Amino acid sequence: MHYGPDSVKNHLLSYLPSGASKAFIITGSSLATKTPLVAQIESLLGSTHHAATFANIKQHAPVDQLDQATHAVAEDPSIDTLISVGGGSPIDSAKAISHRHHQKHSKYLFHITIPTTLSAAECTAIAGYTDNTGTKVGIFHPELMPHVIIYDCTFAKETPQKLWLSTGIRSLDHAVESMYNPTAPEAPAKQLCLSAIAQLFEYLPKSKKEPGNPYYITRLQLAAFSSLSGLGLNMGGGLGLSHSLGYALGAPYGIPHGVTSCLTLASVVKLKAEKEEDAQQLARILPYIGQASMDDDRKDALRVGDAIDGLLRELRLDTTLTEHGVNEDQVSKIAKLATKTDEGDLFDSVVSLVRSKL
Q1: Is the per-residue pLDDT at 234 higher than 90?
Q2: 247 Cβ partners below 8 Å, 6+ apart?
Q3: What is the pTM of this model?
Q4: pLDDT at 125 over 90
Q5: ω into residue 62 within 30 of 0, thus cis?
Q6: What is the Cα 117 distance to its own chain's centre?
Q7: Are residues 66 and 96 in contact, defined by beta-carbon separation less than 8 angstroms?
């Protein structure tokens, strides 16, 4: 991993697998057409190393675009490297293409990722995409973990502020839910998550006030890395209820995952505060966000939820489901998608939670 200004220019070529490597760039249309970033990478690679660019990866990585990119890679046997540029969709698409390449050729492709958001997809061995029914599909394999991560604040400067800040809340979602995830070890995962939470609470507001500040951008990139990388291959199943709700709201309703975390995280934390073992873990967060414990785990966990709500208001990221086209008649369906059931205490609690966000 490399981070800091001009990291792409200084390090990208040195991490190609060989002097004859051919790289296929995977990104979205906005980065390719509205910023100079993709052209800069193509120029760095030159004709020696640049095979082609696919710049049509859309939100939630729809399978149609994934199929097109996979076909383009398959047509050129000289390609040995994927370079994903952008947020979670290009990064996950690159993982999925590598998985498909292995299925056909028994070999994974080398993956260099240049994240421009704080979604932290670069930190997992999971490739997520959306099938033709609108369902999120996940593929897990250790070899899908990107080989090289380059956090370059000069690239992240091009990210629209709302996308940048909302994906920061997505990272906060990773870190908070890892605290009560049963597969998350104390070290390094939970220790890194507590550090990430502190950094996100400190630097997201600063980054809002000074969007181009390279130091703030870099601190947030490293916080995003800390929010999820500590789990490594320990992740078993979903991360937590806020993430499950995010998947139920994301692809089916076209809501970006940064925004789904803005909608769900604080309310889920308050729901989890009612469960003793979860409240114990959530209460540990308080001193990392500048608050003193009341020596009551439930009350402390509720205060963590209130603090997240306060952060959302400070960032002007508080929103409702109605603003995103979700109405009362969808509440039970969303709860069922998130809980995998249509009855019981958890289902009823999630119905109430979703209804409260309308």
Answers
A1: no
A2: 136, 238, 337, 338
A3: 0.96
A4: yes
A5: no
A6: 8
A7: yes
Output the pLDDT for position 237.
65
Q: Distance between CA atoms of 277 and 273, rounded to whole angstroms?
A: 9
Model confidence at 232, in pLDDT bands (50, 70, 90)? confident
The secondary structure of the chain, three-state, reads: CEECCCHHHHHCHHHCCCCCCEEEEECCHHHHHHCCHHHHHHHHHHHHHEEEEECCCCCCCEHHHHHHHHHHHHCCCCEEEEEEEECHHHHHHHHHHHHHHHHHHCCCCEEEEEECCCCCHHHCCEEEEECCCCCEEEEECHHHCCCEEEECHHHHCCCCHHHHHHHHHHHHHHHHHHHCCCCCCHHHHHHHHHHHHHHHHHHHHHHHHCCCCHHHHHHHHHHHHHHHHHHHHHCCCCCCHHHHHHHHHHHHHCCCHHHHHHHHHHHHHHHHCCCHHHHHHHHCCHHHHCCCCCCCHHHHHHHHHHHHHHHHHHHCCCCCCHHHCCCHHHHHHHHHHHHCCCCCHHHHHHHHHHHHCC
d(C-alpha 210, C-alpha 270), whole Å: 31
**Residue the block writes with tokens 């979604």:** 119
Distances (CA, A) of 244 to 22, 225, 239, 280, 357: 38, 21, 8, 22, 16
User: Which of these, 107, 84, 109, lies nearest to 31 by C-alpha position?
Assistant: 84
Q: Which of 74-83, 218-227, 235-244 has the lowest mean pLDDT?
A: 235-244
Q: Please give the pLDDT value at position 233.
A: 80
For helices 257-272 and 276-283, give the axis angle rounded to 10 degrees.
120
Average pLDDT, stretch 118-146?
92
Lowest-confidence pick of 111-120, 128-137, 140-149, 188-197: 128-137
